[in-house]
Amino acid sequence: MTYQQRSTFTNNPTAKKLFELMDSKQTNLAIAADVTTKAEILKIAQELGSEICVLKTHIDIIVDFDQELTKELRELADKHNFLIFEDRKFADIGNTVQYQYRDGIYHIVEWADITNAHIVPGQGVIEGLKEVGLPKGRGLLLLAEMSSAENLAVGDYTQKAIEWAQKYDDFVIGFIGMKKLIDNPKFIVMTPGVKLAAGTDNLKQQYNTPEKVISGGSDVIIVGRGIYKAEDPQAEAKKYREAGWEAYKKRN
Ligand code: S5P
Questions:
Q1: Predicted TM-score of the model (pTM)
Q2: Mean model confidence pLDDT for the chain
């Protein structure tokens, strides 16, 4: 099924928008913009915006963060037609994650289309985030699997994530996972740990190629250092975009 066809299976507005823009823009590339200054992240959003479906942020690593930044990122997202995914990995009781999602200095729910959560606290983490995010049409990804060596998100844990995603499918739009996890077209799998050459880093990150990830049934490749550390990030982003899209076309 195409991304466009899959957009009709979900009622979540963010998931719909993502499927539609991936199809119309012909990209399944998300950039992990793991940089530490406003200037750097804005440069990435500006220069790579036309190549990507999703800009993934770790907003709490920006040393000179201010409210202007999220406003500007939002403007760039609308201008270049990509979604913003704040990779917050919420992992607390429902009451606490509500504060973390809505309040503090980041007000994540105000500007991030998508965020994600670990399921280790149980279903309360999903319910807490849903009360804050769903009224604004936001979407949540559950970390069903991880890319790092010896991680514990396997077996029954992964199965629980899949079960709870179905239970809360108005708000949970999919997973962080390494492959296709469920035969239901509404759920999106985004996969980190992607490089044109497979391998590892020195801190137990593990990389697969775009071809391997997409042919395994994942929908979105998340690429960080493979792009932003390259000499010419724009040219590199085009390569990843092409590799991801070719693999998708081959699959369909
Ligand atoms: O299991 C995971 C989940 C995530 S969201 N493994 C990951 O690496 N990530 C994120 O993906 C991680 O926080 C980082 O932002 C990105 C991978 O970056 P790269 O530089 O290794 O491509």
A1: 0.98
A2: 98
Å from CA of 49 to ligand 1 middle? 19
If phi > 0 it is left, if psi is from -120 to 50 it is alpha, else beta; for residue 236 that is alpha
Which domains does the chain carry? 3-251 (3.20.20.70)
- Name the CA radius of gyration of the chain, rounded: 17
Predicted confidence at residue 3, as pLDDT, reads: 97
- Two structure tokens written together for 117: 């959560």
Query: What is d(CA 209, CA 44) in angstroms, rounded to the nearest whole number?
Result: 22
Q: Which residues are catalytic?
A: 89
The pick from 142, 213, 222 for probing ligand 1's pocket by mutation, whose C-beta has the most ligand atoms within 8 angstroms, reads 222
- Cβ of 192 closer than 6 Å to ligand 1, yes or no, is yes
Pairs from 158-166 (Cβ < 8 Å, separation ≥ 24): 160/119, 161/119, 164/119, 164/123, 164/126
- Give tens-digit pLDDT for 186-243: 999 999 999 999 999 999 999 999 999 999 999 999 999 999 999 999 999 999 999 9
